[in-house]
Amino acid sequence: MCHFNHVEVFKRNGETRVKVGAGCQIKHLLKALNKQGLTIPSLGLITEQTIAGATATGTHGSGKHSLSHYIESLRVACFKGDENVAQVADVNDGVELQAARCSLGCLGVIAEITLPCIPQYFVQEKATFCQTIEEVLVLEKQAPLQQFFLMPHSWLFLAQERVVSNECRRHGLAGVYRVYWFLVIDLGMHLTLKLFASILKSKKLIHFFFRRVAPSLISPRWVVIDRSDHALVMEHELFRHLEIELFVTRPKVSEAASFVADILKFADDANHKLSISTHEKLQKTELLDSLESIRGKFTHHYPVCFRRILPDDTLISMASGGSEDWYAISFITYVEPRDDFYALATFLANSMFELFGARIHWGKWFPQTGEQVNQLYPEISEFRNVCHQFDPKGVFRNAFIREKLGLE
Ligand SMILES: Cc1cc2nc3c(=O)[nH]c(=O)nc-3n(C[C@H](O)[C@H](O)[C@H](O)COP(=O)(O)OP(=O)(O)OC[C@H]3O[C@@H](n4cnc5c(N)ncnc54)[C@H](O)[C@@H]3O)c2cc1C
User: Fold this and answer.
1) What is the DSSP letter of 2?
2) DSSP letter string, 175-224
3) Which ranges of the chain have pLDDT less than 70?
4) pTM score of the predicted model
5) Domains in the chain: ranges and CATH
6) How much is the pLDDT for 408?
7) What lines the ligand 1 site, CB under 6 Å?
């Protein structure tokens, strides 16, 4: 698909759009658009993905819809209309478009995607430490693009307050900030965590890092303005890791954050006493027995990132449906073998499904069952219908799709 990498900017009804080849990496798309003073409406943490891979899995950043939501049309190689002869179909509207925006490859091979372009913008960023999630959520009003982190072992919240700036130039030593961020966070923090967690496997050093070192790495006084594609991304792809990301709606995010902190403390320390609220929740959902699989077995060693995603107009992206904003809560590990992390992540996936109706990112580690998926996505049967029209014989399905989406 890397040969499908064209970028064609054009106007329709006075608005600027871009037709982009499915295999084009987002970083190349951004570069081409920036030359014309343009960008795309939403960005994730990295820009290495192809536009088709990112949108097919509902990839998102913070404070906007996922990238999938913005797709205006797609060109797909599929079996629509003739189950034996592949066709090229243009998908422009209706339920087909909603399905194709985030399709996990089920409709066919996407060849081209059309997205709206927006003028390039600058983002102001500042870091703020908070004691509670309620304080962080209040900041969102003044910083709608914000993402925030629950720092394990200090259990403080760090908000990266982000807002679209009125200024259209870099400010606050943005170049120095980027170099600092790259050396200290992208390289320094990750290498240190890898050393402490993955090589030395030292619980004490991980605690020391998050309680003593991490807070001193971030200066709350440093206010920076930088171009969106610099400000919103990081070099997260540098070190191999595994991630699971759970999505809950806004009314549930505070409770989910307390639950997560309690469970991570329990996984870290076999003697940790769960709060009454967590205990009651697990009792109600009959999950108390499965706690033993994680008790004192895993020291979480990465900031837990929270990002807000506005509801998507798709059928099965993680933020699809409803009118509430969604919060993606991410758990990352560097430790191998992964068995203890898998146990923790499976426990979180099952308990948060029962308690908060949590969905899981399609493009990350995915332990939920087809039955759970069925309950979580009210429009999944619409999605299946569209899949059957585009791919009657199931040529594009693999075992994962058959199991999780119930597509036989
Ligand atoms: C380091 C790192 C950071 C990340 N950060 C974020 C983040 O900030 N936010 C976020 O939401 N996600 C994030 N992700 C997840 C990532 O965006 C998804 O896994 C995405 O799918 C990867 O894109 P890709 O081009 O590598 O896709 P691939 O792995 O190549 O494809 C993923 C799936 O997309 C479908 N697909 C791909 N191309 C086509 C096509 N041409 N036609 C039909 N179907 C197709 C297929 O189902 C395929 O299995 C991150 C992943 C990594 C590794």
Assistant:
1) T
2) HHHHHHIIIIIIIIIHHHHIIIIIIS--HHHHHHIIIIIHHHH--TT--E
3) none
4) 0.97
5) 7-118+379-405 (3.30.465.10), 122-236 (no CATH), 237-374 (3.30.70.2520)
6) 81
7) 1, 22, 44-46, 49-50, 52-54, 56-57, 59-60, 104-105, 109-110, 236-237, 361, 363-364
